[in-house]
What we know:
By secondary structure, the protein is an all-alpha fold. The chain has two helices and no strands. The protein starts with a helix and ends in an 11-residue tail after the last helix.
Amino acid sequence: MEILYLLVPMTLVIAAVIAAFFLWSVRSGQYDDLDGEAHRVLMDDDEVESHDQ
Length: 53
């Protein structure tokens, strides 16, 4: 039972740290454009030259 006096505050501190990192990532714009990078990977911007012989 005494272990709960240690585990409950530790859990609350870890949860607060996780929430702080999540809020920081939202405010810094990490989740603004979720599809942009996925589409950018699929699009081929290189021009392919055809060598007609």
